[in-house]
Design brief:
The protein is α/β, with parallel strands linked by helices. The protein has a single domain, classed as CoaB-like (Rossmann fold, 3-Layer(aba) Sandwich), CATH 3.40.50.10300. The chain is 45% helix and 20% strand. It binds ligand PMT. The site of ligand PMT has 21 residues, from helix 4 and strand 11.
Length: 357
């Protein structure tokens, strides 16, 4: 239209065309440079986080355990899943009395770990210290003590499982003992968001060798905000100097380097927790689009143990328990894990790796 209005002649048009052709490589180069700059900025922020936060004191021990565990299962071509579970904290003081916490009981991660074991996976269970754990989650609080009875005769004390509790305890105990006898589960614990970052990267470093046989199931509730180390007071904040003003910074999202750099061949599943139903699927889709991983499990805080939506590039699939199933204690994690294992199997086949169980 522009050409028609200005009535350019044929040779002027040809000249413009040639000019465009000669500029095209420069434009392409400019776009590449812009993309690289974006990566540098992004990596700068998570690298800066690692540079300014020391590893936890037990880090080297955990790193050795992770390496030994993955090497052993790699030699047998086992599938390995990293399950992260529980919430991370952000300390308000170096000698921590107060902290900001992310909500998560750890049920999702602990139950899922059991179902992955059932499916033949080796499980790295990376969890918040004192949150729910596989197998023991069934007997939290006073439940275990209520199952026991004690008999005292002269100097002899015997403790036994009550007859009506054997039915509940035996199957869990048998699965627990089988998993531990096979060395199929490794527990590593975190408390703060910085502990979590260090452990997650160390786990990814050793999982990279498993290629597509590695599965990451990132169910932990990770802090989005933190206080930079140099802004945290050493000692307990005192109330006599008035209400403290706390300036929070954004935590860099680890999904970006994890998917692109650390475990590029693994099957990565992240979670999206919302409290507003209208935001749930758009935000899950936006995460898939942004990080280019494989799956997002979307859940609403209030009904997270009854309903989730499995979001992949191709579809949104609802997993729903009936009220009766929920009351009967059925775990929604069983169908979630089934679905993920199906996708992971396809992923291994696509990448052409030997993914024997
Ligand atoms: O433990 P339960 O009580 O059973 O509850 C389970 C659950 C609700 C905690 C779980 O199902 C869940 O939704 N976990 C993820 C909660 C969460 O932190 O969502 P998010 O929108 O803040 O983060 C989304 C994803 O980004 C997460 O997979 C997280 O691993 C990742 N992330 C988050 C922060 C960060 N700095 N880097 C990240 O990579």
């Amino acid at each position: 239209i522009w050409c028609a209005n200005i009535k350019l002649n044929h040779s002027t048009l040809k000249l413009i065309h040639l000019l465009f052709c000669s500029l095209r490589p420069c434009v392409r180069r400019y776009r590449v440079v812009r993309r690289l700059r974006a990566v540098v900025t992004m990596s700068g922020s998570w690298e800066e986080f690692f540079a300014t936060h020391l590893p936890p004191t037990d880090f080297e021990d955990n790193r050795s355990l992770l390496k030994e565990f993955c090497d052993r299962h790699d030699r047998q071509s086992h599938r390995i899943v990293l399950v992260t579970s529980g919430g991370t904290t952000v300390p308000l003081e170096h000698n921590t009395v107060r902290f900001v916490d992310n909500f998560s009981a750890g049920k999702r991660g602990a139950a899922s770990a059991e179902y992955f074991l059932e499916q033949g996976y080796a499980v790295i269970f990376m969890h918040r210290l004192k949150s729910l754990e596989p197998f023991t989650r069934h007997f939290s609080g006073q439940k275990l003590l209520d199952m026991l009875e004690m008999q005292e005769q002269s100097n002899n004390t015997t403790i036994r499982v009550k007859q009506d509790s054997v039915f509940a305890l035996a199957p869990v105990l048998s699965r627990y003992q089988a998993a531990h006898a096979a060395g199929a589960i490794l527990h590593v614990a975190f408390t703060t968001v910085s502990d979590y970052f260090w452990l997650l990267r160390a786990a990814c470093e050793v999982l990279a060798k498993s290629g597509p046989r590695a599965l990451l199931y990132l169910a932990a509730a990770v802090s989005d905000f933190y206080i930079p180390k140099d802004s945290i007071p050493t000692h307990k904040i005192q109330s006599d100097s008035g209400p403290p003003v706390i300036h929070l910074h954004l935590v860099p999202k680890l999904l970006a380097p994890l998917v692109n750099l650390w475990v590029p061949n693994a099957y990565v599943v992240s979670f999206k927790l919302e409290t507003d139903e209208n935001l749930l699927i758009p935000k899950a889709r936006a995460a898939l689009e942004k990080y280019k991983h494989k799956m997002v499990i979307a859940n609403i805080l209030q009904n997270r143990h009854q309903r989730v939506v499995v979001v992949t590039r191709e579809a949104n699939q609802e997993v729903l328990l009936t009220r009766e199933e929920l009351l009967a204690g059925v775990d929604i994690e069983a169908p979630i894990v089934d679905e993920i294992v199906r996708h992971h199997t396809d992923h291994i086949a696509e990448r052409g790796a030997a993914g024997s169980r």
